[in-house]
Amino acid sequence: MAAIQQDILINWSPQETRVAVVEHGAVQELHIERTLERGLVGNVYLGKVSRVLPGMQSAFIDIGLERAAFLHVADVWHRQPDGEPPAFARKTEPQLPIEKQVFEGQSLMVQVIKDPIGTKGARLSTQISIAGRLLVFLPQDDHVGVSQKIPPAERDALRARLQALVGDKSAGGGGGFILRTNGEDSTDAELAEDIAYLRKTWARIKEASVKLPAGSLLHQDLDLLQRVLRDLVSDHTQTIRLDSMEQFHRLRAFGQEFMPAAAGKLQHYKGERPIFDLYSIDEEVAKALGRRVELKSGGYLIVDQTEALTTIDVNTGGYVGARNFDDTIFKTNLEAAGSIARQLRLRNLGGIIIVDFIDMVREDHQQAVLSEFKKQLARDRVKTMSSGTFSQLGLVEMTRKRTRESLAHMLCEPCEACQGKGSVKTARSVCYDILREILREARQFNPREFRVVASARVVELFLDEEASTWRACRTSSANPFPCRPKAPWGKSSTTLFCCSQRARAGGP
């Protein structure tokens, strides 16, 4: 397998920052942050408990947003004995009921772990974690850990080094720290610097929590530009190109202080073409907003996103290149496995995902497709879990952690005509709806005049194919009346239909 060649492109404007992660010339991830719609994940608030729901084992917390945020009992922090892992790492212990832990009117320091999505408010945790360049600080705990992505053989030595740097509470040290993956090769001096920075940040948060009222923001996570250096840069990253000189200097200064290795990859893009045109990223984004995704072989995917889950259907389409039908299906599924993993990253799809690969008879074909799918999912920086097998219905079930809105929810809104259903009534259905409404009104009231405004397609149907329905409308009424459409502005325009009192009396 060839080494991953990764480039990061940043398009900045005062109202919006867009970041594209490109691998081998194809965009894999797109991150967007708008000044007026900045994400909340990582922010620390001083919240106030507005309601406790024992039946849901949850509480609603007012943190100063439009919608109350949500705190589940599993996300309530408990102090642990020295050296024990924090509560979120221990799944088997019974939970203390939430009504015995929080009460209405109580002030709580909370952190956002999921942005508001759709009609759901933000999800909170009382377990505060502050991410640094090399470490994650858990100020309420005393556990020292190492990222699970670091090889097991190296973890014990790294943990011992980190424990020595953290020190004891009695000597002014202590606190919980987890070594991030990019801190594997860090020196003691770099780790000590990160520890000091994180402790200083926590001291500012505690100081603000005493001075500020409930509903106040105590700490805000880094903006998208800064998070690029902290979270997106890896050993595979070759360049980070930014098209704003002002932001380039700002980001370089930030990087030189906290992430010198990443700062060395920064470049100011001076080209005349927009930076996203280098890899046709805007075109890829437009495709990612559609249902259909074309495969190079001629097959295609259909992606449907709903409130409960996302379904992805694989079809052979026009691909007939293989020697036999089984090989055609196998090659289509194999290509689809890579494309689906990319679409999940590009669209930022989260929650439950159901993949309907084309049915395969041979077991070796099934295992090869599952293996390829697993390999492609492993490249995702967001946590994914797959069933790893085909269900009895031939489906692959998986989940992908959801912390922010998907690309479609961020860039689009429901259509006013179809209300997001993706379909509208036919012109003929609208015609018949109009006629039924006229009859209903004529039977209940004695209207002086009916006025109906309709689209050009509905007008044409009324004047041509459905002209006879006006006669049916007259004769089926309990009080028969002449009724005919008039088109004062012509057939091709939005037209007014009227049935007046004069027409009822037998006039023209």
Rg for CA atoms = 30 Å
Biggest sheet: strand arrangement: 16-17-18-19-21-20
Count of β-strands: 23
**Residue windows where pLDDT falls under 50 for at least 5 positions:** 487-493, 500-508
| Overall 3D form | globular
Strand content: 15-25%
What is the CATH architecture annotation of the largest domain?
Answer: Beta Barrel
Named CATH topology of the largest domain = OB fold (Dihydrolipoamide Acetyltransferase, E2P)
Q: CATH superfamily name of the largest domain? A: Nucleic acid-binding proteins
Structural class label: alpha+beta
Number of helices: 13
CATH class of the largest domain: Mainly Beta
Report the helical percentage. 25-40%
The averaged pLDDT comes out at: 84
> Major beta sheet, specifics?
6 strands, mixed
Number of domains: 4
Distance between the first and last residues' Cα: 82 Å
Description:
The protein is α+β, with helices and mostly antiparallel strands. The chain has four domains: 6-37 and 224-281, 2-Layer Sandwich (Nucleotidyltransferase, domain 5); 44-219, OB fold (Dihydrolipoamide Acetyltransferase, E2P); 290-411, no CATH class; 427-504. Helices cover 31% and strands 24% of the residues. A six-stranded mixed β-sheet has the order 16-17-18-19-21-20, covered by helices on one side. Strands 3-2-1-14-15 form a five-stranded mixed β-sheet, sandwiched between helices. A five-stranded mixed beta barrel has the order 4-5-6-8-7. It is globular, with a radius of gyration of 30 Å.
List keywords for this structure.
Nucleotidyltransferase, domain 5, six-stranded mixed beta sheet, 13 helices, OB fold (Dihydrolipoamide Acetyltransferase, E2P), single chain, five-stranded mixed beta sheet, alpha+beta
